[in-house]
């Protein structure tokens, strides 16, 4: 029985709050806090109506350590789940250290003024968390998150040495909008407009954004054009599995999405450099975010599925072997269960599972700062099956995108 504080009341925060409330045997008291309290209250009312559970709500600016510290002291949770934005990772880690509680997030820290994704800032907290006897679990969504648990599971049960890893992420859903992003638009657009990168033979190969693409055949969906992007879990995976000769991340985008994105980029709307507008400094990408649909508004009438998985090639008992593990998730089913679309759902459920393991499984509560592949994958894989993200696996399949880069 543990109290949990969830920060962030967007698409993902809503799913985490619903799923924690649905598991009140572990999460005995829940507080949802965010910058805009009205959003927390709306989610709390929905949870009361759908699951008969009362959760508390609060307003907090998570950029200000002292504000979060005050809230933690008042509510006294055992851990904090950060599903606000990556900009808040460090201030929230500081607040956890100051109050002696555990920490979990779903995306690595990014400074607001540079679109740069790397774990160095958060890994630098290793000693402080270890010395305090506290745990910080980083990137516990689907990707990052489950993709690392899948890889650790493959490494433990299927390979003596893993050599090639392709993470493949497809959203074949239709939300009926001309252009919208499935998670925070600002973070999403920063991620895909930066140069792509993949790991090969001990070094990073940088490519022009979206310049490598192929159709990949996704189970239950069919072939979809997929693009090589840099994705943050690659950094920790190649560090923790040094036998990997190549590691890439692929994501699908429809032509309509790419056309809109190209236009927005060409006219300067995706820039994070402030410009003067009517005497004020504004950041074009922040303005764009304000006019695009919010991720938590896309769920109703969203149809189709997501499919995210890992395809791995390596050696077991001296023989070459391939392994594919994946989950398909249906947007409409997620909406029925927790009023969310599948991208928020596939992020929020693993965050709840990570928190559940930290609170109930001694092996999973390890002082220090960790990425998801550094803990025993087996209990996580079991809980995925129990809490709405069942996985499938195939051994020795032909990997459809074994192309040269
Ligand atoms: P949303 O934009 O829908 O929600 C973000 C929430 O954070 C909003 O409620 C926002 O409040 C709140 N927030 C922002 N700044 C602050 C602040 N300073 N203090 C308190 N609250 C704040 O985003 P999503 O729910 O789609 O995404 C949430 C996180 O999940 C992101 O970090 C994203 O990168 C990550 N993610 C991870 C994935 C994974 O698989 N690992 C996949 C998808 C997302 P307000 O409403 O007032 O703006």
TrEMBL record:
Keywords: Oxidoreductase. Residues 141-389 form the Saccharopine dehydrogenase-like C-terminal domain. Residues 4-137 form the Saccharopine dehydrogenase NADP binding domain. Pfam families: Sacchrp_dh_C, Sacchrp_dh_NADP. InterPro entries: NAD(P)-bd_dom_sf, Sacchrp_dh-like_C, Sacchrp_dh_NADP-bd. This is Carboxynorspermidine synthase. GO terms for molecular function: carboxynorspermidine dehydrogenase activity. Its EC number is 1.5.1.43. It comes from Dyadobacter helix.
């Amino acid at each position: 029985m543990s109290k949990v504080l969830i920060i962030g009341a967007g698409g993902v925060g809503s799913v985490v709050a619903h799923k924690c409330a649905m598991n009140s045997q572990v999460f005995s008291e829940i507080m949802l806090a965010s910058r805009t309290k009205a959003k927390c209250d709306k989610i709390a009312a929905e949870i009361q109506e759908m699951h008969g559970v009362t959760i508390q709500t609060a307003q907090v600016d998570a950029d200000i350590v002292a504000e979060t510290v005050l809230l933690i002291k008042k509510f006294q949770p055992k851990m904090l789940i950060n599903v606000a934005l990556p900009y808040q990772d460090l201030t929230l880690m500081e607040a956890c250290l100051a109050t002696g509680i555990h920490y979990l997030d779903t995306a690595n820290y990014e400074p607001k003024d540079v679109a740069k994704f790397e774990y160095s800032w958060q890994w630098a907290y290793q000693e402080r968390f270890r010395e305090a006897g506290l745990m910080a679990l980083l990137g516990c969504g689907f990707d990052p998150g489950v993709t690392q648990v899948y890889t650790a599971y493959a490494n433990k049960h299927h390979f003596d040495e893993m050599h090639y890893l392709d993470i493949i992420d497809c959203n074949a859903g239709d939300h009926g909008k001309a252009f919208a992003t499935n998670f925070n638009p600002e973070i999403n657009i920063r991620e895909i407009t930066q140069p792509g990168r993949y790991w090969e033979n001990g070094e990073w190969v940088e490519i022009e954004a979206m310049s490598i693409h192929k159709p990949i055949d996704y189970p239950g969906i069919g072939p979809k054009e997929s693009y090589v992007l840099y994705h943050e879990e690659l950094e920790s995976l190649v560090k923790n599995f040094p036998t990997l000769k190549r590691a890439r991340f692929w994501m699908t985008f429809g032509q309509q999405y790419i056309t809109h994105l190209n236009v927005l980029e060409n006219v300067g709307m995706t820039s994070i450099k402030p410009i003067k507008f009517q005497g004020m400094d504004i950041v074009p990408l922040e303005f764009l975010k304000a006019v695009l649909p919010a991720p938590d508004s896309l769920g109703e009438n969203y149809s189709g599925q997501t499919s995210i998985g890992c395809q791995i090639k390596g050696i077991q008992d001296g023989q070459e072997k391939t392994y594919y593990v994946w989950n398909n998730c249906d947007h409409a089913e997620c909406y029925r269960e927790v009023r969310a679309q599948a991208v928020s759902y596939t992020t929020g459920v693993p965050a709840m599972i990570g928190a559940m393991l930290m609170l109930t499984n001694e092996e999973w509560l390890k002082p220090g700062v960790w990425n998801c592949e550094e803990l025993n994958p087996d209990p996580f894989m079991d809980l995925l099956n129990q809490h709405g993200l069942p996985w499938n696996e195939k051994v020795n399949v032909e990997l459809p995108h074994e192309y040269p880069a």
